[in-house]
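step=predict obj=PepSY domain-containing protein n=400
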Amino acid sequence: MRKKHHHKKKVSSTKKWSAKLHLWLGLSVGIIVFIVSLSGTLYVFKDEIQNSLRKEAIYLKKEDIGKKPLSVNLLREKVSLELNEKYPVSAVEIPLDKTKAYQFEYYEKSKKGWNYFQQVRINKQVYVNQYTGQILAVYDEKYDVFNILKYIHWGLLLNSEWGSYTVGIPTVIFVIMLITGIILWWPKNKNARKGRFWFNWENVKNWKRKNYDLHNILGFYASFIALLMSITGLYFAYPYVKNTFTFALSGSWELPKEKEKKSPDSLMAKNEAVFDLAAAQTEKLYAKSSSFRINLNGKNKKGKELKTLPVTVYGLDGRYSERNILTFDKYSGKLLANKPHHKLHTAEKYSNANYDIHTGSYFGIIGKVIWFIAGLTCTSLPVTGFLVWWGKRKKKGKKI
């Protein structure tokens, strides 16, 4: 009997400390959790909404589809002349579906500036009919609502070098809150379990009780997806989280590093058709893929000069998980390396898939729907949680 009584006291103590942690951590980061959850939730169906709004730019008219597309270099020059931007065209995404337009990209980033708008110098998408050279549409992605939502979610629109920590730290706290929330939800016995899985409002008129149930029950159901979303988000924010995943999946703390190749034909004159040669070989090797991206300005995202010409092949539309990497000589267009998705290590495959898992797209449209509902619930938790605390505070005030 003593042991049983001692066990109850221990559980009560655990719940007591969990309640304190849950409350004070929630009050400290509630507003950030609300903003991050809402922005992430609104971003989930970005591809579906944009594809619908940009349908006329993405898909070519039947009468405009020719037999052979124009040279990538010629199309790039045409885009540069017509838009007359001070920055060079960064890349082109070529769809394997011949009814879809080419997408040329302008992207330039600065390390300076304390916020997103100062840091991103230019981010534009240019849709071009590859058969006629006609520019179908130009979208300024820097000011696009979904891109702004993405950077609010990532770092509250602060400089990406350190802005991620303003979200990363509250996300760690949110993970602790989810764990303490599950502890608080956990029923003591079978009788208590009945009211923990669904709403029983038949004779309940008090809004405080209904609000408590919304926080308690919806929070429980969303907590497991929320944990997955939080951890995959921390994978981007903190190297040690990524390294832990890598070690668990491969036994090594870091992903395999490829030896930096150098174009062997550097002494020869650059072939003007190098991009077309790379595109033709890519289409032959990965004919069943969705699209592929060719770097055009010879620099990586950090602005460092590339010694070769990299091409990224996407296996499925709207997914980044199935990626194949080809490396070409940037002068002659000769294929130097082919790294298909199926030959990657497990840790590398996960690294490619982490973004899709974080957004729910890895699990298809059903995954996105579940992630959207879970995101809405996470957005509501700081609100319902605050109202629970405020209701108890007012009640205590009346007693005094």
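step=describe
The radius of gyration is 26 Å.
step=end
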